[in-house]
Amino acid sequence: MYQKQHRHYDRGYRYQSGSGYTTGASSSSSRGLDWSSQPGLDKTQVSPLLKRDRPAYLAVDKENYIIGYVIPVFRSSQEFAAGYSNTKEARLRNTSAYMEHRNLFTSGLEMERSEQISRRENMRQSAERISLSKTIHEHGEHFKRMNEDSLLHAPEFVIKPRSHTVWEKQCVRLHCTVSGWPDPRVVWYKNNVAIDPLTNGGKYNIESKYSVHSLEINRCDFDDTAQYRVSAMNSKGELSAFASVVVKRFKGEVDESLPAPRHGPVSEYGITFQTHIADTFGVSFGREGETMSLGCAVVIYPALPRYQPEVQWFRDDVLLGPTKWTHMQWSGDRATLTLTHLNKEDEGLYTLRVTTKSGYETYSAYVFVRDADAEVEGAPGAPLDVGCLDANKDYIIVTWKQPAVDGGNSILGYFVDRCEVGTNHWIQCNDTPVKFSRFPVTGLVEGRSYIFRVRAVNKSGMSHPSRVSEPVAAMDPADRARMRGTSAPWTGQIIVTEEEPAEGIVPGRPRELQVTEATKNYVVLSWRPPGEKGLEGVMYYVEKCVSGTDTWQRVNTEIPVKSPRFALFDLAEGNSYCFRVRCCNSAGVGEPSDPTEATTVGDKLDIPAAPSKVVPTRNTDTSVVVSWEASLDAKELVGYYIEASVVGSNFWEPCNNKPVNVTRFICHGLMTGETYVFRVRAVNAAGLSHFSKESEAVEVKAAIASPAPPFGISVLECVRDSMVLAWKQPAFVGGADISGYFVDYREVIDGVPGKWHEANIRAISERAYRVTDLKENRKYQFQVRAANIAGVGIPSLPSDTFLCEEWTIAVPGPPHDLELREVRCDSMTLLWKQPVYQGRDPVNGFYVDIKEAEAPEETWRGINTKATENTFFKVKNLKEGETYIFRVRAQNQAGVGKTSEISERVQALTKPGTKEIVVDVDDDGNISLNFECSNMTPDSKFLWSKNYEDIPDYSRMTAETKGNKSKVTFKCPGEEDIGIYSCLVSNTDGASSSYTISEEELKRLLEISHDHKFPTIPLKSDLAVEMLEKGRVRFWLQADKISANAKVDYIFNDNVVSQGEKYKMNFDKNTGVIEMIMESLTPADEGTFTFQMQDGKATNQSSLVLIGDVFKDLQKESEFQRKEWVRKQGPHFIQYLGYEVTPECCVVLKCKVGNIKKDTSALWYKDGREIKVDENLGFTEGVLKLEIAQISKKDAGVYEIVLKDDRGKDTSALSLTDQGFKDLMNEVFDYIANSSTPLKITSTEEGIRIYTFVSYYNDLLPVTWHYKDSPIKFSDRLKSGVVGEQLWLQISEPTEKDMGKYAIEFSDSKGGLRRTVELSGQAYEDALAEFKRLKATAVAEKHRARVAGGLPDVVTIQEGKALQLTCNISGDPMPEVTWLKNEKELTSDKHCILKLESGKFASFTITGVSTLDTGKYSILVKNKYGTESAEFTLEVTEGTPDLGVTSYWTDAAGNVAFGPNATKKMKSTVTATKVQKTKVPVGKMEKNQTQKPGEDDKNFIDKVTLEPQSDPGDHMATSKDTT
Questions:
Q1: In angstroms, rounded to a whole number, what is the distance separating the alpha carbons of residues 1007 and 1488?
Q2: φ and ψ at 144, to 5 degrees?
Q3: Residue 974 CB partners (closer than 8 Å, separation 6+)
Q4: What is the CA angle 1111-1114-1115, rounded to 5?
Q5: Who wins on pLDDT, 80 or 1076?
Q6: pTM, whole model, 2 decimals?
């Protein structure tokens, strides 16, 4: 049947499908034949195919790997016969008979046809040779991989599985060929779930032979439509390939997203699965950018190991797959869908579908996504559903949907942004906003992919960008279709190729040309290809013509388009155009199509009309169903937006942020009890319509319906002819109180149920009923129906079959009607009713058992170890958020009876808005219990009870209800009212509370009631007295609550006093302050003062007793304050004289004065003597200061300051003597101590020094040095001292005994300050080493060789004269002396005499100076501690007449002294490293003529004769520094 109805069928297809192997090259590949290894065979000549066999059509990728099959467009039987004949002719045309036949009977046309066939055959043979060469190359590569040198390699698909489309009840086989070493392990998957043939007996057959792996699916049904994956894995890696199977039906070929389930058992498996979806998610609300998870628990019975159902998620009936926005997870018993980044596109109805072989179960709930907060207040919401309407190689038409939120201002338009895939650079495509929700994006690069986003703008600002679109490639649709077919085989698309395109035939006219879309920006044309088949490479030219003319202009002049769809841009808006299309191929350009009708360029799409007849209907307590009539004549309608507003608020809020394309919508998230109106508007690409008229107002509350069926039918008692039944209240009561129940029964005979009979005609209000007129030892089933004002609900499911026989057991029957109230996060109250069957003895107690709802049965545990006599029990210490179930057992003297039915599952959680019963006592002393419920419905009622039983008689109390509040007031509270009072609100989610009035609580309430009946005026403060200005006395108190009608009596010693000169009364009724003021106190005022108050029936009084010392002290204080007031009338001290110490340790005497003027004077005194102060009075600041910079003992004394002017004077004194001075100095010492730096260690040449710095040092500062926490006794070796602001401790010649902790202690008024340092370890070693180094340096400096006295820099002497220079030397040990001339050592001879006398005087004498003696001379002294030198330069001049002899000398300081006629002194300074010398002009030296120095015996004398000098200044000595 399939073959007859589908053209995708011929022998080649049947051969491939039946055998599971490919022909030709594929077959050779599977056998592993190496053509290169066969000697004598040429690759280009050997063909594995018989010429009569048709080649396989294999699809290959860019690397020439086989990835699937190419199924040709198969021809009809006539075409097939012709093709077979052509093949036969190809075999016979070289025979001589054929040649003769052709020469005799063919015409020119037949010859041309024969040549075409010959060309085709040659092309086919050439293709076969290429295929063979490729196959041999692949085999060579395969055997290279199989070489021992590289034996291991990852799996590789030689042939991948291909997709199939089959009819129902047919079989299909997917097969592939896999290579790899070691041999890969192959696993087949269906929708990413591993296929196990054992758990799906007979459905799947998996085979693996000779590296060929196949999956056979028997008797395909619609559930087999899926994506199949084959995975090959070995130690080198894993590789997968995909194929799709599409199963179609015979009639209609309906492709439903949610096909009808199969009910009943699966015959081929023999198992019926029961699926239940629990713990479901409800209607959810999210905001853009948030993450949301939806999950349900899935229970499948029976639970088979390794059985996995098919779990699918849908949004608005569209199957969801895993993307970066949606993550799906199946944990074995729970299905979860996570929306990682919410956008408005994610809004919709989400459906979970769990499919087994027995059918499927679904659950649905709506998800609403609100707009993210706008970056600019008043900006619109982001657009949504950005996508591609049309794409070509040079344009992409982007479309989107308008947002529901415009920010309060109309949207001006939209901006479109594009981004090339692989980059993060967004480019705005339009300069001005566009209002139409379609925009053509041009300027694209052909072949590249782009993503798009859209932003809305109004006058307030820009919206957030929309979610980016899917990537779209800028290419010709025909090229895109080819790429999609080869690159995505799992989509089920089958590659269709023309088998043998006709050559040299010009195509005909395109068909059905029409304008599919026209806007002011572009026009889109579409057409159908020409009717001829097999044409070669058909492409199209588009032409346009201005309406009314015959001038046609080609639009795409350069390159024709390949797809039958084209968009035209740059058309003049408002002009009319006609269009036509021509086909072309290599044979030429065909005739044009019929032109279109004249099309005017402009937006053809109008904004839709407003919807009408908006009707809201009650649905639940948080939702309303809104329906409306669709917009009339709306074109290309996208959907509708619904908005809601609370009546009177004039604030509209969107109910949906994604357009809905239906005319009925459930608006969720509304406030219970509020009244709403609704409006709707339509949206299409042109924009948003006007709003519809507002609907009628509707109150949000649950709609009334008949109740759901009761459940949990059980037997409480059974006698010979009757049975007592119990059942549980329906979970859904229909929005109104249940008025009663109806019970039906039927007899069951041999397992066959009979006809139902009514057990009661009138409704019963209790959930227990005795069914009579039954027959003993007969079996019965029961059903129950609930009724309310909406009607009688459907009956419950039939109960279990019960046997009617009399119970004779001794223990009681089960309690029944379990109910849970007052549910809180850590407690709840369980109620039940007495067993109907008491047993042999009356019931005397109950036991309550508890268990977590999900825990196993063995975890049941008792709550009370001692039986309770009550039929209620408060369960405490629960875990918040945990779900619990309960059961109750009754006991009598015979024992404990059977357990009751299990209660409902209840979660320990305090619901939002939960209130508690509050006790109140009003002003009249009435005690009342008050309860408020925030989630009431119009039909809700407050039900009060005592000890959880209805209050039959309200003689002791009254009940009153107003709105959502109810109050029970006790008339005459007494011991009879002790108990637990509870209140339950009907038609709610269990709103209830209780309050216990115990004996102690009743006593407390009665005391409060008495206080309210006989009230007293409450006082914030009792009667008190305080002193005012001028010494006035104020008596006052403050009442907490007092009215303006209150009366006050002022009483002194039992006598009422009144307003007058002595008493001033005041009563501030706003603050409740009552006061009486007296100007002064006299001895007659000693006694008791009382204030008596009366406010209605409330009274109070307060007294104050002022007698004895208390009165006297108050009187003295009054007199003092009066004198103070008089003092302050002139200049006076606000703050008396005091002192403060600054951080610089200066003492500032200061006081603050007031009421001064310009002529007010201030005089400072010390010990009665006036102190002259330089600075003027700072009256503007009101502060007078006297600064003592460096305080010492001489500053001790009594300081006084006197203020005076014509109004009077005031004096303030400060004693800084004895203790006062000590306190001041202690504060100074405190500043000094706190300014001290941490102790530090340094070394000197004498020893180790420990020191600290202070900001200021005072000689009176008490400082103590400590060693190892003991004061140091100072000696010659241990000394302390002060240098500037440095305080130091010197340790001379330190030893290891000096190691330890040292401290300096400053004594002050706060206990002192101590700073410590540790002289030990590395610190001691470093200090000791530095001390030794410095000491050695000092010793060396002291004993090193020195040249004392100096030599002149330059000595000028006449030739022939004698020169003698002498200098002092020192050093220990005595240094060695060496004289040098021009850096060469001199030796003593007759001409140059060198002497060292007494080890201290070194002399240098030249007996007769000649020009040869000119040069640079130096003396070098040296010992083991150092070396020092001194130099001079000798200049010899020609001789002149002698004018006399004079001498000069230099002292130890380097001073050169001349004789009696000398007018100058010269100084030459010599050091160890630097020598300063003096240039002295001298005359001729007279031999053996000397002159002694006048004062200093240590100076040496140079005997010289001075030449006559014309100007002493010309011969002035000069000096220079030599290093």
A1: 139
A2: -65, -40
A3: 1002
A4: 85
A5: 1076
A6: 0.42
